[in-house]
Amino acid sequence: MSLSITSLRLRNQRLSGGRFTNPAEVVSWLGAVQAQEYADTKWALGLRMQRAADAQIERAVNEGRILRTHVLRPTWHFVAPADIRWMLALTGPRVSARMAPYNRRLELDAAIFRRSERAIVRALRGGVPLTRQELKTVLERAGLQVDGTQRLAHIVMQAELDAVICSGPRRGTQATYMLLDERVPASRTRSRDDTLAELARRYFKSHGPAALQDFVWWSGLTTADARAGIAMVERELVGDVVDGKTYWFVASSSRAPGARGTAYLLPLYDEYLIAYKDRSAAVDPSFWRPGWSRDPFSAPIVVNGRVVGGWRRILKGDTVVVNVTPVASLNKRDRSAVADAAFAYSMFLGVDLELSWK
Predict the structure, then answer these.
(1) I need a surface site. Which of 75, 114, 146, 233 has the fewest CB within 10 A?
(2) What structural domains does the chain harbor?
(3) Residue 327 has what pLDDT?
(4) pTM, two decimal places
């Protein structure tokens, strides 16, 4: 069944089969895309698009067609403007609760967050985008202590969770922030049950087959809420029991193409692995090396739906050097597929390729 799970996931995540024409479609389909590694996450979107280019995704970010904010779990995600408000309303309080112990250690409380958010609103009003360091100056002028990167990061993160700010256009390599109310048009308020059902529907449609605990991990919801969300959309899903565990997916996705002959150089924290608590369908623990154990999601190579090694890239002028380290035996066809995947990455960046095997 492992191959069937991986084949379905490859298709439903749009790594195989029909792909999208623009990054906003990818983000909307997946619901949310983990995005703390900005450059790598652009490639995650590119993998799921036809003829994608890094600059194309950069434009989508700058124009606000996709947004980067803290949602679901305590990390950044790309989300669609149409989804950001209801997702924050549903998962923001959970993320805030998980961050509360860290905030207490940093001596950050509700009163400080109110003061900081008032200062941020005044500074950003009128469509002004500011970097985090510029927001630091704003907060210091308002009499707030923002010594150290952690205190500043937590203040800005809380403003995202409170739906005060979201990503603005990039300024070179730096991210900026804008007021959410000025970046995203107001939308109708949705009931909590409606948003629970929608998040479950979106996850299992784009990430299935997946189990309850996979959804709990990805969404950041309580097990009770995750179970309730599944129950609301259960009629739209197929449930298949494997080794005593129920996997849910959308019925129309049951006929998946085979994963044979496919290879992907996945970026850091790609949804194909990070979206599941149990990654055994795609990962063979016997392939782990000591270096990988410190960061099991670091740039994996996937062949035929399974992780078979890792890769790293070095940019040298107009060339990207891709170093490939297999930890499983690859036949000639698989090696050719990996080489094709590396070439696709160089085309995405718009540079020449130098491929190195270890």
Answers:
(1) 114
(2) 31-183 (no CATH), 192-253 (1.10.10.10), 263-357 (no CATH)
(3) 86
(4) 0.93
